[in-house]
Design a protein that fits this description.
Layout: H1 14-26, E1 29-30, H2 31-38, H3 41-44, H4 47-63, E2 67-73, E3 84-88, H5 90-96, H6 110-131, E4 136-142, E5 148-151, E6 157-160, E7 164-170, E8 173-181, H7 188-204, H8 206-211, E9 216-221, H9 224-235, H10 241-244, E10 245-249, H11 253-257
Parallel strand pairs: 8-9, 9-10
Antiparallel strand pairs: 1-3, 2-3, 4-7, 5-6, 7-8
C-alpha cells in the first residue's frame, strides 16, 4: 500500500462518492470491477472510453488519498491499473466513516482479499445482468449488513454470517438468496456446521416473520469436484436441506440466480 496522507481537500463528484461507498461496503475491489460497475460502456461511448475514464478517475482518487492500492495485483503486471486492488485511503475512510478515526490502511491478508474479490465479482455480475435486462436488482447486503442475529436451540445468542444477500426481481417474482462464496479453502466439517446453522436459523421463523419467506442458499464453488463434495454433504442433512441449498460453479452463479443453470 502507498499509505498516503490526504492532500488539500478537493471536492468529490457524485461518482467519486459512489466509488467510495462501494469500496467501503465491499472492502476491496479491482480496477476492472470498478470500471465495469461505475463506468458502463453505454455512458462512456465505447469500451476504450470507459477504460480511459476509469483509469483517470482511479488515479486521481489514489493521488488524493481517497483510495489506496494493495501491493497485490490480479492478473500480474500486464493487467495494469485494472489489476490493482483498491481499498479506502485515509481521506476515503473519513468520508465513508465520519464517526471513526481514520487510519493509514493496514495490510490485508491474501486469503481475505481473494474471498472479498470473489464476492465483489458476483455483485458486479449482478449489476451487469440488470443493465442487460431480464432481472431487477432489488436488494444487496454484503457483510456485515447481511449478518442475522438470533437465539439458537440452546437458548444462547447466535449469528449467521452469509457472505451476501441478494433480492432479484424476475418478471413479477422476487427471488431472495443468501450466497456463500466457497473457494475450497474450508474443511467439509465447517461447511456442514454452516449448513446446519442455516437450518437452525430457518427453524426460528425470524426471517419469515420479517420478510414472509426464507431465502434459498446458493453455494458457489470453483470446480466440479468441489460441487460434487458439497452436493454429497447436503444429501446427508435433514430436511428441508434438499430444498434450501443449491450448489453451482462461480462462473455460473449469475445464470443460476436468474434461474437458467443447474
Amino acid at each position: 500500500m502507498t499509505g498516503r496522507r490526504p492532500p488539500p481537500t478537493r471536492q468529490l463528484s457524485h461518482r467519486d462518492l459512489s466509488i467510495v461507498e462501494v469500496v467501503a461496503r465491499y472492502r476491496v475491489l479491482t480496477g476492472d470491477q470498478l470500471r465495469r460497475w461505475m463506468f458502463p460502456v453505454a455512458d462512456n461511448g465505447s469500451s476504450a472510453g470507459a477504460l480511459r475514464r476509469s483509469q483517470r478517475c482511479l488515479k486521481r482518487l489514489v493521488n488524493d488519498a481517497v483510495l489506496d492500492t494493495l501491493e497485490r495485483r490480479v492478473g500480474g503486471v500486464r493487467a495494469g491499473s485494472a489489476g490493482h486492488c483498491y481499498v479506502l485511503g485515509y481521506r476515503g475512510q473519513r468520508v465513508a466513516f465520519p464517526d471513526r478515526r481514520a487510519r493509514t490502511p493496514s495490510a490485508i491478508g491474501d486469503r481475505f482479499v481473494a474471498h472479498a474479490l470473489a464476492v465483489g465479482e458476483l455483485v458486479v455480475g449482478a449489476v451487469e445482468a440488470e443493465r442487460s435486462g431480464g432481472i431487477e436488482l432489488l436488494g444487496v447486503e454484503p457483510e456485515p449488513e447481511v449478518w442475522r442475529h438470533y437465539v439458537g436451540r440452546t437458548g444462547t445468542a447466535a449469528v449467521l454470517k452469509p457472505d451476501l444477500f441478494l433480492a432479484i426481481g424476475i418478471a413479477e417474482t422476487e427471488h431472495r438468496w443468501f450466497v456463500e462464496v466457497d473457494r475450497a479453502t474450508e474443511s467439509m466439517v465447517r461447511i456442514d456446521v454452516k449448513c446446519r446453522q442455516y437450518l437452525d436459523y430457518l427453524r426460528t421463523g425470524r426471517e419469515q416473520d420479517r420478510h414472509g419467506v426464507f431465502p434459498k442458499v446458493l453455494w458457489t464453488v470453483p470446480h466440479d469436484r468441489r460441487r460434487r463434495q458439497l452436493n454429497a454433504l447436503m444429501t446427508r442433512l435433514p430436511p428441508p436441506a434438499d430444498r434450501l441449498f443449491a450448489v453451482t460453479l462461480h462462473d455460473n452463479a449469475i445464470i443460476h440466480l436468474k434461474g437458467g443453470a443447474p
